[in-house]
Amino acid sequence: MSIPTPGQPVRGSKTGVPIMALFDLLGRTWALGVLWQLQDGPYTFRELQEKCESISPSILNSRIKDLRKAAIVERTLDGYQLTARGHQLVTIIRPFGEWSREWAKEVFHLPEDATQATEQ
Predict the structure, then answer these.
(1) pLDDT number for residue 1
(2) Rounded to a whole number, what is the distance in angstroms from the first to the last CA of the chain?
(3) Distance between CA atoms of 45 and 72, rounded to whole angstroms?
(4) Which residues 6+ apart lie within 8 Å of 48 measured at CB?
(5) Between helices 18-26 and 31-38, what is the axis angle to 10°?
(6) Residues 6+ apart with CB under 8 A from 82
(7) DSSP state for residue 70 in the 8-state scheme
(8) Which domains does the chain have, with CATH numbers?
């Protein structure tokens, strides 16, 4: 399976507008989890698998391959790490985490300690 590509049909967009291609890519199983863990990288494959806990080796391999093709992750001598573009993306995603904690507290009445656990 190829990665979602701007300009080509993707989930949610027949024309493949760039934002929908990105959402399609990030919506794949474990894509955001891998991205999130790599913000503290680099990590070897095994280290990254341990960080992601329940991820299978085949899914991790697929997500790394997808994120590398999208120039969000790169392989170095020390393992896998975010590219400059990947770091930029994580910086953009962090406010979603803040928004989601407020949403969880206000709409679903989750206690503060329950909303903090989602950051890890």
Answers:
(1) 60
(2) 29
(3) 16
(4) 34, 37, 38, 41, 60, 64, 79, 80
(5) 90
(6) 35, 38, 39, 41, 72, 73, 74, 89, 90
(7) T
(8) 18-119 (1.10.10.10)
In the chain, where does DSSP find H-type helix? 18-26, 31-38, 45-51, 57-69, 84-108, 112-116
The pLDDT tens digits of the residues spanning 30-69 come to 999 999 999 998 999 999 999 999 999 999 999 999 999 9
Report yes or no on whether pTM surpasses 0.85.
yes
79 φ/ψ angles, rounded to the nearest 5 degrees: 130, -150
119 pLDDT above the threshold of 50? no
